[in-house]
């Protein structure tokens, strides 16, 4: 058998003989197989790595989309507040309607509306009259001292209520009758002593519809020498009528 082997080796070239004698791990076929295995392993690793990255990407996108949804919800809230503010602006109309109702109530209490007023206010011979009331001034006009000891002018009158509701004479008098001295409007004051009863009654009592009342007004004067001028207002326009009543103090 050695002879056959030697015979076969004699037919090989020196290079082929040298290659045959190499260890298996140095032979070209083995190296090729190993290289292919390494390439396969590397390719498989790259594939698995890319697959893991592709699976992780949707999770990032889902987080981003949830954040966008939260921002949209925050933008909706201010719109609701704006709508509430716009609703809160409506009471301005109510105030205007209230003023209109007050005018209607005043006309109702007076027993007449503005269109049906025939006498809106006239003054003649110490008598101030209108569709709503009549004031008959007395000749009993006095300079007295008020509750503070200051000089005051007291004017007695007889008041008749022509409306359909109870009225306070002092309130009607202060609304439609103005007293001035040296172009300064005089203010009401409190009485004392014998005059307190009639003045306080005029300030507090109510006169029923169709009834009359004897009362008195009392105003503080700035001087005991200068004249006091009484003027009267038109109940429809609240403007002074032409006729006035002077009171001479000296």
UniProtKB/TrEMBL annotation:
Membrane spanning stretches: 30-49
- Does the keyword Transmembrane helix belong to this entry? yes
- Per the record, the domain of life is Bacteria
Q: Where is the composition biased (Basic and acidic residues)?
A: 60-73, 81-116
Keyword terms: Membrane, Signal, Transmembrane, Transmembrane helix
Asked if the Swiss-Prot or TrEMBL record annotates the protein with the keyword Transmembrane helix, the reply is: yes
InterPro entries (alphabetical): DUF5067, Immunoprotect_excell_Ig-like
Query: Start and end of every DUF5067 domain?
Result: 114-232
Note down the stretches annotated as region Disordered: 53-116
One family from Pfam that matches here is DUF5067
Name of the protein this chain belongs to: DUF5067 domain-containing protein
